[in-house]
Specification:
Blueprint (H helix, E strand, L loop, with lengths): L2 E4 L2 H17 L6 H11 L5 E7 L2 E11 L2 E12 L8 H15 L4 E7 L3 H9 L3 E8 L5 E6 L1
Parallel strand pairs: 4-5
Antiparallel strand pairs: 1-2, 2-3, 3-4, 5-7, 6-7
Helix pairs in contact: 1-2
Amino acid sequence: MTSQASAGAEDLDPAVDGWRRAREAAGEPPSDARVARVHEKVREPEALVVVARDQDAVVAMALLEPYSGDPTRAHVSMVFVDPERQRQGVGLALLQAAHVLAGARGWAGSSVWTRESNVGAQALYASAGYRATDDVGATPYGDAMRRWAR
């Protein structure tokens, strides 16, 4: 059983380490520079970091930031669930908690970009109330992306 809460300072390093391990397990190991940038992002004053814990271990994280151009909305900049805990409802519970906490900050809605090929993430976002928008783009590596909003 997991619990979800706004991350404390003691959660940030384990959360980033979990994100890094999840990227490695997906065959997409992040560069040292990217890991350093994520460490910075989770510590930014406007960041909302939400974690799911199983006992004392961080097993999932969501990072929300103010949406550029509309301070009444949040941008979900990253979500990870430990590979061993995926497809068990952890991600949905994490996003639901993140939405409650974002609402308490005054963010009325949120959006997220995800690769078109990432059908697992799309299913997660759809189950959390997100809908695909007409906004499309590409990752720095050329992968097609789409923005989802709720």
